[in-house]
Specification:
Blueprint (H helix, E strand, L loop, with lengths): L2 H9 L1 H9 L8 H8 L5 H21 L10 H6 L3 H13 L4 E5 L5 H8 L3 E6 L2 H13 L6 E5 L12 E4 L4 E2 L4 E2 L10 H9 L3 E6 L13 E7 L2 E10 L13 E6 L3 E4 L14 E5 L1 H5 L3 H8 L2 E2 L7 E3 L8 E11 L2 H10 L2 E8 L6 H8 L6 E10 L2 E9 L9
Parallel strand pairs: 1-2, 1-4, 2-3, 4-7, 8-10, 16-17
Antiparallel strand pairs: 5-6, 7-9, 8-9, 10-11, 12-14, 12-15, 13-14, 15-18, 17-18
Helix pairs in contact: 1-4, 1-8, 6-7
């Protein structure tokens, strides 16, 4: 029995009963569970149900409660868009007037689900029969079958002319290549094909890895970097001239969007600000801001400056609220010296330290071992970085703490 046959077996009553029984399955008891269940069920079906239970548990981080009703493949869990990010993209497409869309390389249908929930009718295409079976089952399980048509086909042979928009999510993992693919032309399909397919549509969104080099990005498109809860999740290349206001696609634009709040910053093409001395406040830009090369835009909002030409920390003399960076009150600016730092922390009764680094060769955990923090109740944030090219330690506290800067 092949993988597709066993998957189909999970959709039958016996498979459904097994999945229900394994809803709160403890992975550490898998061997005992397998032995017990194989007494009354086919071994292949038991293995498939146990595998699906494991995948659902992993998928909760991306799909929340929906994961317990959904169906996954190992690649599907790894490559699927987080539900919050998919919902953001779907909402933007809907705001751009998209009502029908071809989802190319749909995988298990995570994006198709978000698009359908946003009121967009979706043709979901993938060449993997197992992924297509999972996408079809997910549309059924979530009550979206009328909105999502799943087609098993080579995406390069699909005619998308009658759709308002195209969404392309090329595969960026390969067993043959040993995991994640970093060369965009090694994506499946290649980035160059996906870009040309996107250019033919009235509106298009192309999902790519957030670490893509800026020089590889098409200049006739807007690229949006998206973070969720402070973690950069993906980049999206947008094509078309649709929309107005905040949702408008800006050719050549660079944008950073921060979820869950949805704050979105479109870059103005500013040059980096001149570096200067460390002020009372230090700002750590969100990763999406850094990836989008919009540190200068945030610095302008804060009336700030860089602490070093090569370091993405902003400093300012007054506190200004911004969703695009986390603020810290700075109490000390010191040349890097472990013994002096250790003595200072002991003197202040610091027992809790958050250690951050940017532009430093020192590993935070190695430094933590050397500091041997005691049982003091005071806390401190330590930044290992460079200021004007010199290895430096900045000590401070989050701006939300009841502490004011002072040196």
């Amino acid at each position: 029995m092949n993988d597709l046959d066993t998957f189909v077996g999970l959709l039958a009553p016996e498979g459904q009963a097994l999945l229900a029984e394994l809803r709160d399955h403890d992975p550490s008891d898998e061997l005992a569970a397998a032995t017990r269940l194989r007494r009354t069920h086919p071994a292949a079906l038991v293995s498939a149900a146990l595998g699906q239970a494991r995948l659902r548990q992993r998928a909760v981080a991306k799909f929340g409660a929906d994961a317990w009703r959904m169906y996954f493949t190992p690649n599907g869990v790894e490559q699927s868009t987080r539900a919050t990010v998919a919902a953001h993209r779907a909402a933007r497409l809907a705001a751009l007037g998209v009502r029908t869309l071809a989802d190319l390389c749909c995988g298990i249908g995570g994006d198709a689900i978000a698009l359908a929930r946003a009121g967009i009718r979706v043709l979901a295409v993938d060449r993997d029969p197992l992924a297509c079976a999972a996408a079809r089952a997910n549309a059924e399980a979530l009550g979206l079958a009328e909105w999502i048509e799943v087609r098993c086909a080579d995406v390069t042979e699909v005619d998308t002319a009658r759709y308002d928009a195209v969404f392309v999510d090329p595969a960026r993992r390969s067993k043959a290549r040993g995991g994640r693919i970093f060369d965009p032309e090694a994506y499946s399909p290649p980035l160059s094909w996906a870009v040309e397919a996107a250019r033919k549509a009235p509106v298009a969104a192309l999902k790519i890895a957030p670490g893509v080099p800026h020089e590889a990005l098409p200049e006739d498109a807007e690229t949006e970097w998206i973070s969720d809860g402070g973690d950069v999740k993906e980049a999206v290349v947008w094509f078309g001239a649709a929309g107005d206001g905040a949702d408008r696609i800006t050719s050549g634009g660079r944008r950073a969007t921060l979820l869950p709040a949805g704050d979105s910053l479109l870059g103005a093409g500013l040059p980096d600000p001149e570096p200067g001395p460390v002020g009372d406040w230090l700002y750590e830009p969100d990763g999406a801001v850094i990836r989008a090369h919009l540190v200068a835009d945030v610095a302008q909002q804060l009336d700030g400056r860089l602490i070093d030409p090569t370091i993405a920390y902003i400093t300012a003399d007054r506190l200004t609220a911004t969703p695009y960076a986390t603020a810290y009150a700075i109490t000390d600016v010191l040349p890097f010296h472990v013994k002096k730092l250790k003595a200072l922390l002991r003197e202040r009764g610091v027992g809790i330290a958050v250690i951050k680094k940017r532009g430093s060769a020192v590993e935070p955990e190695e430094l933590r071992k050397k500091l041997k923090l005691g049982g003091g109740r005071a806390s401190c944030t330590i930044f290992l970085t460079r200021v004007a090219g010199a290895p430096t330690m900045l000590l401070g506290h989050p701006a939300t703490d009841p502490v004011t800067p002072g040196r």
